[in-house]
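Box S2. Input/output pair 1.
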Amino acid sequence: MTTRRRFLAISAAAVAFPGASVAEPVYTWQGVALGARATLRLTHPDARAISAQVAAEISRLEDIFSLYRPDSSLMRLNRDGVLQAPPFELLECLSLAGAVHRASDGRFDPTIQPLWMCYAEASATGVLPTQDMLTAALSRTGWGRISIGSSGILMQDGMSLTLNGIAQGYIADRVAEMLIAAGLTNILIDTGEFRAVGTHPDGKAWPVRLAAGGEVPLAARALATSAPLGTTFDEAAQVGHILDPRSGRPLQSVWREISVSAPSAALADAFSTAACLYENLEDINDLVAQSQDVRIEAAVAA
């Protein structure tokens, strides 16, 4: 069960085009990206070609990070326990994940995939996992049990990773870099996490509305929101998907949702996920203070 958005949207425009006498029309591309409906709205003389390049880049990154494409780099790592010559993007994302793991005292831990599967498989039969099942799944987790290097990534037997708490933000960052290189300057990317480059074409910050109410003005910055009950494993929608890697169980969170802004969408994504596993705002502020220019934009109590 989920309440998370299932779409991707990108809006971008260049401030001016040399030699242009009239305003460029908005070009709209629609398709599927990140397993969701996708819309790109670009104002640029080469908007059609840029849209195709963006769609291709997202697909290429899915071939690295997806848990649904059977031959993605992540799926091959999870299947074989080893990945030789891993893509740079996977190494970079894992490096960021490791930094947030350390900052959060282990609360952010991509090795929880066996736990997540334990809950998902039990939920499919209408029950929750037993303590024995959780204990078995926990024995196959632990960030310290992974060896990560440019020549290869090695995990102990039975382990598997999920980068769902950081990869969408990372992809938003990579798309932003591509659009900047193409000459676009007023950009808002929504992959479930937001990345703004510059401002809205009217010169004001992009107004990003939060699901729980309120609005965050976003300019040259990223924003991510995590909701402990955004995806749940039970029909009563009380057993959330953000699992505590220390206990193997969802924390009975005091938060409805937490929004974090940061220089990059990957960091905002990971810190917002980790923040949901803290029980008071003071500790969350201590968490984000460990990374430069990361801040809490909203913490809505349950």
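Box S3. Input/output pair 2.
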Amino acid sequence: MWTVIAIVAVILLYFIAVYNGLIARKNQAKEAWSTIDTQLKRRYDLIPNLIETVRGAAKHERETLQAVTEARNAAMSANGPAKADAENHLTETLKSIFALSENYPTLRANENFLELQRELTDTETKIQAARQFYNTVVMGLNTQIQQFPSNIVANMFHITEEKLFEMDEAEKVAPKVKF
């Protein structure tokens, strides 16, 4: 009798441990996504300042500035899977701002532009690190959900896999810089 109780207790404790591990990984994934959101908010706050600095030096480059503004607004309002696509598009349009600086030597020398460019570059680096961390956490969660016997616990409690943050094809291509 005690043997049966001990076996049931061990199985129950195992299920509890697996369940708690899955919940911990699920919460880590949420926290990692929140870190990405924090860095994106920083990016959103910097972009208007960068646009105004560039606008002052390159007034007739309205199309580029408008594209960046529209991409920022689209990224801010996107949710779910569309968020990653909107962020990738915003990253792509930001590259055009830096290309503008090549055409305007006074803009490149402007302290405000240089500081904003540094801040934006730092933010982009932090976003990439946050995305990498998110993907690492999600990969751990998804692997645990797929592995036996933790997949049984995951299915019992409807714990599902998370989607990795992936780049679109346009972002994988290196930007062309012309002098």
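Caption for Box S3: Confidence is low (pLDDT under 50) at residues 174-179. The CA atoms of residues 75 and 82 lie 9 Å apart.
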